[in-house]
Amino acid sequence: MTDTRPGLRSGATPLAVRMRPRSLDEVTGQRHLLTPGSPLVSLASDVAGEQGSVSIILWGPPGTGKTTLAQAIAHGSSRRFVELSAVTAGVRDVRQVMEKALSDRDLFGVSTVLFLDEIHRFTKAQQDALLPGVENGWVILIAATTENPSFSVISPLLSRSLLLTLEQLDDDDLGVLVDRAVADDRGLGGRFALDDDARAMIIRLASGDARRALTALEAAAVS
């Protein structure tokens, strides 16, 4: 990789975060989930709240866009976005989010998207704490998992949610992401020229993982 301009920002937010799509139109891959009229597209454009409070479970490998989709849906529909990780959160955290979401809905008419990453790490009791908010429409739950939800998500929650499967990104998708990150002002801003061999190596090493591709690109840029 050749530096064509001096001055890569030091201490910047990671490239993968800076390049996260701000809308579904910017999402690369997952075409089977983003066709016109699909549940995700309809939910993201539902500013008036006409689609109700359908909850979603996103099942797929790491780096396929689960967090990105949740954020884009919240942004596109002007909903408040709250993120919890099942690795660090507990029942108390869930209840606090639910109480705030109910208050915001009733007092200000603001709907909340609760994105719960790695839901498979929640125990049955912890998953049970999600049910009141899901059943009563206090939040739109978007839960992400890399494990089969049939074995890792409790039946009451599974039956109240739409299960969508994400696919690994193909090489063409990864190429689009890498090229965009090289050129975009949010990314490397054209300061670096990526030769074909380096580009191909980054795509190969990423193995369908967008985050891994952008992390490798960033490492190459600062090396």
Features:
223 residues; alpha/beta; Rossmann fold; five-stranded parallel sheet; 11 helices; 7 strands; 14% strand
Structure description:
It is a single chain. The protein is α/β, with parallel strands linked by helices. It has two domains: 136 residues, Rossmann fold (3-Layer(aba) Sandwich); 53 residues. 43% of the residues lie in helices and 14% in strands. It contains eleven helices and seven strands. The chain has a five-stranded parallel beta sheet with strand order 3-4-5-2-6, with helices on both faces. A two-stranded antiparallel sheet has the order 1-7. Helix 9 crosses helix 10 and helix 10 packs across helix 11. It is elongated, with a radius of gyration of 19 Å. The protein starts with a strand and ends with a helix. About 2% of the residues have low confidence. This is AAA family ATPase. One of its GO terms (molecular function) is enzyme activator activity. One of its GO terms (biological process) is DNA synthesis involved in DNA repair. Pfam families: AAA. It comes from Clavibacter michiganensis subsp. insidiosus.
Entry summary:
This protein has 223 residues and is α/β, with parallel strands linked by helices. Helix content is 43%, strand content 14%. The radius of gyration is 19 Å and the shape is elongated.
Please render the helix and strand layout as text.
Blueprint: E1 2-3, H1 15-18, H2 39-44, E2 55-59, H3 66-76, E3 80-85, H4 91-108, E4 112-117, H5 124-128, H6 131-135, E5 140-145, H7 149-152, H8 155-159, E6 161-165, H9 171-183, E7 192-193, H10 196-206, H11 210-222
Parallel strand pairs: 2-5, 2-6, 3-4, 4-5
Antiparallel strand pairs: 1-7
